[in-house]
Structure formats: structure tokens, C-alpha cells
């Protein structure tokens, strides 16, 4: 495996991203280490190849934004919008993640070992998110598809205006958002939890989680009124 | 819309390095706030009976050549307050005996274009237009000493780019506030406060928050209660960082759209809008780094 | 004895209230029936100060006109010159505004692309992603990044010619989009990752940033992702235009798009359409003032939209300082919106009965939200959408855009300009005090500019 190191204190993110946007054939199998990230924004955005990237320190906004195929590890915390709009691949935050982690992700797996801020998984469109710690308020807001596993607690208004995404929570839920409801765990939920917890390397019992999904009462404001608008 | 920074040194031995540690924090927030920058630094309090005001001369015709000694002569002749000044560029800290109000009234009458920045026994305040690096160099921020500070870089939203609209804002004595975000009801707050004798100097939304909180403190609220009333009265998006002579306090609105991150070690508590501004701090790799929760009050004692 | 009522009494019996006129009564009766706000399509219907309230000072003796059709008058328009390595170069300053696949059918999106390409101008995606049809048919395609991020993905970002970060829309600044269940057919649902047939409400704020300081970082992400090649537009609904334009420039926009309150929508609450935002006429001058105050005029380009209908509207927007315009509703009308007939299989068919079924008539229809567009423009219905054939639509739209461009150059030549971008505010005067105040041009026949000259 070819290894390369980019020092962000020398030249910033531009050369790193330019390299990571190179031909997929050349990038495949490479392992890029990013040192001195020091909270820089937009590290490793728009990746489109099965390349491995390790960010050694804290990342700023949109780390691994819109990721496809790549496997990105952040040995530190991540700023706002880590792995936003991810399509596939894996992003692993070893520390905590700020607001809007995994926002609008269509696919892939986002693992956050620590806590996540507000609006984790907002507008989720099919990705999987596993949070080792707790999530802030409005997490899973308008989440359309995909799965979220929260091993700690959830803040206010969890899963407000949910569509078809499913949220699993082990700890306390401060409050559920509009149209979100607790549902019993089924066999498929146990299977999903087992798979996701294993992928995140976490040792929780799937049976200890609660399932939150849409009550679907907001899917139509008022079906009877449609014709009289 | 801006960048905020705060630094509180836990060990008195470090106080000589306050400015040096802070300048890279402020410069780290340049992209969030390229228009203007400001800083309130809290020093050991002056002995009882003494006060100081920070005054800005950048709006006068003389600017940084302002004749402070003539003003001091006139002030001391008229009020006999033993005033002395420390001058840097457009800025002077004037120390004097007795109450602040007569001195402030004198300064306003003597130099209508002089701008009063702060009043108290601990606080020195600097703010000016320019990039954070330019402002830091202009006022030699790296040489500042003290126990804690509150700093700000500004990207103006609704009100103009002028030195008086830069942050921090102050009200009363030894109180200042910086803000990242945008309030949606600053004019209503202002109209509520003005009949209570509270005067505003700018149209800036942050000034409304600052004067509201200081008003509550002056009315006898604890900082905790004042902030609680702030959550009820102030609408919009905000991260506020406040300084008093002995404390730094931080709150975020319930939506917490505007970022904040804290790094704490045995030596310091450092607060910034983004980790970029904390990255250079000594031993930050081993600091406890966390994001303050919305609607929580964080208060650190100097 | 006569039982006849006095004539004055008879009229009093039938006097309509100005406050509670017939449409207000309808509004209250409807609200009391449904308990829901009204939702509809298109833009503000109320009369507003508009470009019609301005006229050009054509050349005569003090200025010399150019010969129409003979002497050259350039319409070339370049957008995104500030940071992008590959700016957008257009043959005309008239572009097609962002309208979603979902609001419009795939056929319509294809027609837009074909016509825009033939005219050398750009089209824009909307809330719902990029369709293959529109990418294929559009030489220059602007890809919107919206709060909902429906169908948004990095592959399409890379395929786009420019990216437009949408903060708001003239029809509903501060509000999110809507797409009622009738229009969420299987293809739309799949592109937006939604269950079929749900009433879809979009977010009003972006999921991962708030405010200009964050927007600067978001723009940088899009630049990094596209290796700094593509122009980044920022679109705002016209409200606090002066501040918003300044902040968009601070945040790093290459192009600012300002959409006035006459701008249309596929579906929004009527209270938004009629009561939020400022008229396009007022918005242009505020936007230009912001760019001039920052010394960014010419560096950051301005696109104006919201109720632009004619070549005269375009010329006036340019004269007031816009670099280009974007048209939405006018484009739909060129495709047959509100026509009494549609063309299918080479035959004209009457659509009157379908309008009547919606409770409306050609000329009054704003029922885009129902998905039952009688002429097949704003629908996902399998039968209705066939009523708009892409080639027919493309031909009509091309004619419309061509007419507007010709009118634009005609007016520019009449003012003595060899380039439509040389039109200036001093070429205009206002017919009403309101328009003079908003556009900051003199009232016709005077030197009086309200607020400037006494």
C-alpha cells in the first residue's frame, strides 16, 4: 500500500484535495495521512475513489464532505457537517462531531466514537450513522431514509418530521419531535443493530435499544382538503 | 456574523503571556470576521477608589495623533481626579480617582468625536476596523497582560462597518459581550430599554443584547438569572461570550447554529468559534476539547 | 303608493366592501372550511411597481441611435469571472431560472435545455436534482444546492457548469419549498428519496450551515470539490437586498442572483407569495448599490429574476445594473401555461374543460401545485405530461427567448449602445413616483429622484 503524508501547516488543503481528486486507478489502495489539520475546513472533500485517508488531529467544517468510496478516519474531533451528503464509503470520527454530522448523507457509514452535536443526521437520505455517545437536539430532523444508531442519549425533538429513516437509541430521549414515535424492535431491527454496532466496533446489546420511526401522520396535511386548495 | 474567542488563564504566572497566546486565536478567526476586530482584556482590578476608561480617538480629525495630554490637563484642572493615560495608536486607557460618570461626561463634552469604549476597574477595551492581524499589530495585542479576555472578529450583517459597531460591546462597569449570530428582535429590546433610561450608541443588534443583560445585572439579577431572562427576551441565533472582572460566561441559543468549541487544560480555558483558533495553544493536544451545549450556561472563574 | 326603492338605497344594498371584498370573503370562507392555509403556484398577483413603470430615453439629437438589425449590438454575457477557472459564457443575458424536476415534467426540462442550448444560454436545475434529460439537452447547466438537498450528489456537481447555492426564492423568502403528493410520482419520489405520494415540505435553512460566515466555508467546499473550476452563484429572495448581496459577496460568491417578489413557485402558501419580499424593481437597485459600494460591480455579476416577461423588462433590468436575467414563469407561459389549447400529435386540442375541472380558466390558472396542469407543463401525470412535446416546447421557447433578445437589442440600439451591457440607469425615467423612488431614476420630465434631489 502506497503511503503519502500531507502536512496542512505547509500549503493548506488545496494540494491535498487536488491529489485526492486524481485518477481513481492511481488512488485506489493509497493511504494518505494528513498531519497538522488544526481544525482546517474542507479536508478530503469530494473523494471518488477507494482511497484510505487518516486525519491526524481535529478537522474543521465538512471533513470528508460528499465522500464516495473512500475510507476516512479522523483521529480527533470533527467540525460542522462531517461527511455531509456522503454517498458511500466510510468516515470514522474518533473524537466528537459538531452539528449536522452526516447531514443529507445518501449512503456510506459514519461512525462517531464520541458525542455528536445538534441536527446529527438531518435530512438523512440513506446513509448509516453510528454515534458512540449522545446526540444533540433536532437530530434526525426530516430524515428520509437510512439508519441512525445512538448509543448514548438524544436531545430534544428527536426525529422531527421523519420520513422513512429509522433511529435506534440506547439511552434517554429528552423529547421526540413531531410525528416521531417509539415502536417495538422487530427481528429486522435486531439484525440491523447487530450489523451496525459490529461495523462500528461497539459492544452494546441490540435488545437494549429503542426504535424511533415516523408515525406518518404528516405525510398528508389533510387529504380531504387537497381538492379544495 | 463573526468569530469569537475567549481565553482565561488559571495560573497567575501565565498572565504575562495572555496577549501572546491570544493573538493567533484572533487571527485564526479572520475568515469569519474580516471587517473589524476587538478585544476586552481584564487585568488585576485597580485599587478601590480608582477607575479607568478606554477611549478611542480614531473618529477625531487627529486620529492617533490625538493630543491626550491637553485633554488630561483640562480634565485634571476641572475635576481634579489625578487622571493619567496610556496611549496606543487610536486608543487611550485613562485612569483616575473617583466616580466614572463625571469623567465620562467631561470626555464627551471635551471631545465629542472621542468614543468611550469601556469603564471599570479591570477592563481595557480595544476595537477598530481592519483585519484582525492589522488591529492586533496596531494595538500591540501580543504584549497585553491579564487574567482573561474576550475577543471578536466581525463580518458585518446589517449595521455598517465602523469602529463603534465592532465588538466587544460594553455596558455599565467591567462587563462586555461579544456575539456571533443575528438577533431577530433587537429593535423591540431596544424600545423596551430606552424608556428605562438606557442609552444606545449604535443600531447594532449585539448592543441590544449587551445592554439588556447588563441592565438585568444592575437590577440585581445573578449572572445566571440575567442569562435566563436573556433566553426569554432575545430572539434569533446567537452564541454570546461575556466577560466580567472575575468571570467568562458563554451561552448558545437553543438552535446552536453558530459554532463554539472549548479547550481546557490545567493552565487555561480557551473558547473559540472554531478549533482553528485553538490549534496553536500549548499542549492543546492533551486538552479537554468539547462543544458547549445549547441553552446551557458556562461560567468560568478567573 | 309606489313600492319602488329609491335608487340610492338600491345601490347601497349592493355596495361591495373595500376591506371585505369578494376575494377576501372567498379567503375567509375557504379558511373556515379547511383550517389550512391556501397553497398555489406562480407568483404575486397583486399590482406592484414594476419595470412597466419605467420608460427609455431613446436617442434623437443629443444621442445617436444605431440602425436596428444592421449595426452590431452585442449580447454576449460572461458570468463567474471572480474566482472560477471556467466562467460561463452566454450568447444572451436571458437565462432560464431554476425550476425543479417534480414541479415540471421531464419533457419540460428537456424542452428548456433544447431551447436554451439553441439560444446559447443556460438552464438551471431545481429542488429535486438533475435529470439526465436536462443534462443531455443543456449545453450550459447550473446545478442548484438547496436546503433540502433532494437528489443532490457530487457526481452531478462535477457534471454541472456552475453551482447555485439557493438561500431563498422571491415567491417565499424565508420559507421552504413544497411539492404536494399528487406530483410525487415514482420517479420524483426516487430522485428525492421520498415515499411516493407524500406531501413534501422542504427545509427553509440549509442543513449544514447558517449565516454568511458559514456560507464562506460552504462555498469553499464546493470550490475544493470542483477544483476551483466552476462559478458559484448565490441566490437570495429579495428582502434585505443590500445587506444580503454584500454578505453573499463577502462569503465568496462569483455571481449573485436576486429574485424579486413577483418570482414564481410551484407551490407555496399564498400569504408568502403576496406578503413577503420586495418587488424586483426595488431589488435591482439595492443589489447594484451593494456591489458598487464594495467596488465589486463587474467582478461579481448580478442576475435578476422575478416577473421578467418582455425584452423591455430585460433591457430595463440591465440598464439598472443587472448583468443578466433569469426567467421562470415567462418560460412556462411560452411552453403553453395558461393557453386554452395544447398541441399533441400535430393537432391542437382544447384544454378548456380541464381548466374548468380545476375551477379555473385559461388566463387565470395558478394550479401548478395540483399537478393537473391542463397543458402538461407543471405535472407528473402520465397522461397530462404528454401534452407538452419537447420539440414543440423547445421551438416555442426558443422563439420567445429570441423575441426577447431582439427586443433587448432594439431598445439598446435606440439608446445608442453597441452592447446591451452598456445600458445605464440614466437611460431610464419613471412614470410613477413609486417607481422613481424604488429604481432611483427621475420622474419623467423632471430631474426629481425621490430621496436624492429633494
UniProtKB/TrEMBL annotation, chain A:
Which terms in the Gene Ontology molecular function aspect does this entry carry?
oxidoreductase activity
- Can the keyword Thylakoid be found in this entry's annotation? no
Q: Which residues form a coiled coil?
A: none
User: What keywords appear on the UniProt entry?
Assistant: Plasmid
- The record lists the membrane-crossing segments as none
SUPFAM superfamilies membership? Alpha subunit of glutamate synthase, C-terminal domain
| Stated name of the protein | Protein glxC
Question: Which residues, if any, are the signal sequence?
Answer: none
Domain of life where this protein originates: Bacteria
TrEMBL record, chain B:
InterPro entries this protein is in?
Answer: GATase_2_dom, Ntn_hydrolases_N
Q: What is this protein called?
A: Amidophosphoribosyltransferase
Its organism's taxonomic lineage begins at: Bacteria, Pseudomonadati, Pseudomonadota, Betaproteobacteria, Burkholderiales
Q: Say yes or no: keyword Cytoplasm present.
A: no
Give a single Pfam family match: GATase_6
Keywords of the record, alphabetical order, are: Glutamine amidotransferase, Glycosyltransferase, Plasmid, Transferase
Q: Which GO terms describe its molecular function?
A: glycosyltransferase activity
Q: Which residues form the signal peptide?
A: none
- Indicate the segments forming the Glutamine amidotransferase type-2 domain, all copies: 2-302
UniProtKB/TrEMBL annotation, chain C:
The UniProt entry, under InterPro entries, shows: Aldolase_TIM, GltB, GltB_archl_type, Glu_synthdom
A Pfam family of the record is Glu_synthase
Tagged with keyword tRNA processing: no
Q: Does this entry carry the keyword Oxidoreductase?
A: yes
Q: Which residues form the Glutamate synthase domain?
A: 81-339, 364-417
GO molecular-function annotation terms?
A: glutamate synthase activity
Q: Where is the signal peptide?
A: none
Q: Which UniProt keywords apply?
A: Oxidoreductase, Plasmid
Q: What GO biological process, any one, is recorded here?
A: glutamate biosynthetic process
Stated family: Belongs to the glutamate synthase family.
Q: What is this protein called?
A: FMN-binding glutamate synthase family protein
Q: What is the lineage of its organism?
A: Bacteria, Pseudomonadati, Pseudomonadota, Betaproteobacteria, Burkholderiales
Amino acid at each position: 500500500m502506497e503511503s503519502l503524508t500531507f502536512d496542512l501547516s505547509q500549503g493548506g488543503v488545496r494540494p491535498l484535495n487536488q491529489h485526492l481528486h486524481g485518477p481513481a486507478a492511481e488512488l485506489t489502495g493509497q493511504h494518505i495521512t494528513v498531519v497538522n489539520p488544526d481544525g482546517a475546513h474542507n479536508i478530503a472533500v469530494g473523494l471518488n475513489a477507494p482511497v484510505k485517508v487518516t486525519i491526524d488531529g481535529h478537522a474543521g467544517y465538512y471533513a470528508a464532505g460528499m465522500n464516495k468510496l473512500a475510507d476516512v478516519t479522523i483521529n480527533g474531533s470533527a467540525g460542522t457537517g462531517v461527511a455531509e451528503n456522503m454517498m458511500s464509503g466510510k468516515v470514522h470520527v474518533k473524537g466528537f462531531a459538531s452539528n449536522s454530522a452526516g447531514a443529507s448523507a445518501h449512503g456510506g457509514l459514519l461512525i462517531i466514537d464520541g458525542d455528536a452535536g445538534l441536527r446529527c443526521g438531518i435530512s438523512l437520505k440513506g446513509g448509516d450513522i453510528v454515534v458512540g455517545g449522545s446526540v444533540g437536539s433536532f437530530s434526525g430532523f426530516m430524515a428520509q431514509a437510512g439508519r441512525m444508531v445512538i448509543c448514548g442519549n438524544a436531545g430534544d425533538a428527536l426525529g422531527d418530521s421523519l420520513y422513512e429513516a429509522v433511529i435506534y437509541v440506547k439511552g434517554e430521549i429528552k423529547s421526540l419531535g413531531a410525528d416521531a414515535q417509539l415502536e417495538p424492535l422487530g427481528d429486522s431491527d435486531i439484525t440491523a443493530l447487530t450489523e451496525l454496532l459490529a461495523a462500528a466496533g461497539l459492544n452494546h446489546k441490540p435488545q437494549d435499544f429503542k426504535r424511533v420511526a415516523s408515525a406518518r401522520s404528516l405525510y398528508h396535511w389533510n387529504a380531504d382538503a387537497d381538492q379544495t386548495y | 456574523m463573526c468569530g469569537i474567542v475567549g481565553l482565561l488563564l488559571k495560573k497567575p504566572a501565565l498572565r504575562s503571556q495572555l496577549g501572546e497566546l491570544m493573538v493567533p486565536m484572533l487571527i485564526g478567526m479572520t475568515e469569519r470576521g474580516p471587517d473589524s476586530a476587538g478585544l476586552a482584556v481584564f487585568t488585576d482590578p485597580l485599587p478601590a477608589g480608582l477607575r479607568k476608561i478606554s477611549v478611542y480617538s480614531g473618529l477625531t480629525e487627529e486620529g492617533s495623533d490625538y493630543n491626550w495630554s491637553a485633554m488630561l490637563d483640562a480634565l485634571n484642572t476641572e475635576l481634579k481626579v489625578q487622571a493619567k493615560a496610556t496611549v496606543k495608536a487610536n486608543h487611550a486607557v485613562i485612569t483616575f480617582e473617583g466616580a466614572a460618570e463625571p469623567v465620562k461626561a467631561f470626555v464627551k463634552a471635551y471631545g465629542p468625536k472621542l468614543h468611550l469604549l469601556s469603564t471599570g476597574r479591570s477592563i481595557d477595551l480595544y476595537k477598530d476596523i481592519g483585519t484582525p492581524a492589522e488591529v492586533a499589530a496596531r494595538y500591540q495585542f501580543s504584549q497585553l497582560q491579564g487574567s482573561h479576555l474576550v475577543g471578536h472578529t466581525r463580518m458585518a450583517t446589517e449595521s455598517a462597518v465602523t469602529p463603534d459597531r465592532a465588538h466587544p460591546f460594553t455596558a455599565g462597569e467591567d462587563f462586555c459581550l461579544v456575539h456571533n449570530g443575528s438577533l431577530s428582535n433587537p429593535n423591540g429590546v431596544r424600545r423596551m430599554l430606552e424608556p428605562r433610561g438606557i442609552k444606545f450608541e449604535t443600531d447594532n443588534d449585539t448592543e441590544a443584547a449587551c445592554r439588556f443583560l447588563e441592565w438585568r445585572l444592575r437590577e440585581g439579577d445573578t449572572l445566571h438569572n440575567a442569562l435566563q431572562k436573556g433566553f426569554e427576551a432575545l430572539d434569533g441565533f446567537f452564541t454570546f461570550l461575556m466577560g466580567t472582572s472575575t468571570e467568562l460566561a458563554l451561552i448558545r441559543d437553543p438552535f446552536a447554529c453558530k459554532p463554539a468549541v472549548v479547550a481546557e487544560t490545567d493552565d487555561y480555558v480557551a473558547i473559540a468559534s472554531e478549533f482553528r483558533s485553538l490549534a496553536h495553544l500549548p499542549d492543546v493536544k492533551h486538552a479537554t476539547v468539547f462543544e458547549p451545549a445549547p441553552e446551557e450556561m458556562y461560567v468560568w472563574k478567573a | 303608493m309606489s313600492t319602488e326603492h329609491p335608487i340610492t338605497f338600491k345601490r347601497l344594498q349592493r355596495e361591495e366592501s373595500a376591506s371585505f371584498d369578494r376575494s377576501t370573503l372567498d379567503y375567509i370562507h375557504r379558511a373556515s372550511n379547511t383550517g389550512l392555509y391556501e397553497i398555489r403556484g406562480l407568483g404575486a398577483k397583486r399590482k406592484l411597481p414594476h419595470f412597466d413603470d419605467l420608460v427609455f430615453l431613446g436617442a434623437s439629437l443629443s444621442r445617436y441611435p444605431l440602425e436596428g438589425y444592421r449595426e452590431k449590438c452585442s449580447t454576449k454575457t460572461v458570468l463567474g469571472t471572480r474566482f472560477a477557472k471556467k466562467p460561463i459564457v452566454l450568447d444572451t443575458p436571458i437565462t432560464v431560472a431554476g425550476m425543479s424536476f417534480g414541479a415540471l415534467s421531464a419533457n419540460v426540462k428537456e424542452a428548456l435545455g433544447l431551447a436554451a442550448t439553441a439560444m446559447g444560454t443556460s438552464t438551471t436545475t431545481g429542488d429535486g436534482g438533475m435529470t439526465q434529460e436536462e443534462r443531455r439537452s443543456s449545453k450550459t447547466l447550473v446545478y442548484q444546492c438547496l436546503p433540502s438537498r433532494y437528489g443532490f450528489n457530487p457526481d452531478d456537481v462535477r457534471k454541472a457548469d456552475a453551482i447555485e447555492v439557493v438561500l431563498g426564492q422571491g415567491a417565499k423568502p424565508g420559507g421552504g419549498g413544497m411539492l404536494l403528493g399528487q406530483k410525487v410520482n415514482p420517479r420524483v419520489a426516487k430522485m428525492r428519496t421520498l415515499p411516493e405520494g407524500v406531501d413534501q415540505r422542504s427545509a427553509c435553512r440549509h442543513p449544514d450551515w447558517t449565516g454568511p460566515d458559514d456560507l464562506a466555508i460552504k462555498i469553499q467546499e464546493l470550490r475544493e470539490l470542483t477544483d476551483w473550476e466552476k462559478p458559484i452563484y448565490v441566490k437570495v429572495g429579495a428582502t434585505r437586498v443590500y445587506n444580503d448581496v454584500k454578505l453573499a459577496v463577502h462569503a465568496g460568491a462569483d455571481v449573485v442572483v436576486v429574485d424579486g417578489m413577483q418570482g414564481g413557485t410551484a407551490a407555496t402558501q399564498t400569504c408568502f407569495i403576496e406578503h413577503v419580499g420586495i418587488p424586483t424593481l426595488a431589488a435591482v437597485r439595492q443589489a447594484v448599490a451593494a456591489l458598487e459600494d464594495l467596488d465589486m460591480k463587474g467582478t461579481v455579476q448580478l442576475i435578476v429574476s422575478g416577473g421578467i416577461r418582455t425584452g423591455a423588462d430585460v433591457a430595463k433590468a440591465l440598464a439598472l445594473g443587472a448583468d443578466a436575467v433569469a426567467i421562470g414563469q415567462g418560460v412556462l407561459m411560452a411552453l403553453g401555461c395558461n393557453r386554452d389549447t395544447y398541441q399533441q400529435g400535430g393537432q391542437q386540442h382544447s384544454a378548456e374543460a380541464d381548466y374548468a375541472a380545476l375551477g379555473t380558466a385559461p388566463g387565470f390558472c395558478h394550479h401548478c401545485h395540483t399537478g393537473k396542469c391542463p397543458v402538461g407543463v407543471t405535472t407528473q401525470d402520465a397522461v397530462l405530461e404528454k401534452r407538452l412535446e419537447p420539440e414543440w416546447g423547445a421551438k416555442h421557447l426558443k422563439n420567445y427567448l429570441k423575441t426577447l433578445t431582439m427586443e433587448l437589442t432594439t431598445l439598446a440600439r435606440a439608446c445608442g449602445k453597441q452592447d446591451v451591457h452598456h445600458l445605464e440607469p440614466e437611460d431610464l425615467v419613471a412614470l410613477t413616483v413609486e417607481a422613481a423612488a424604488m429604481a432611483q431614476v427621475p420622474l419623467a420630465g423632471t430631474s426629481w429622484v425621490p430621496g436624492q434631489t429633494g
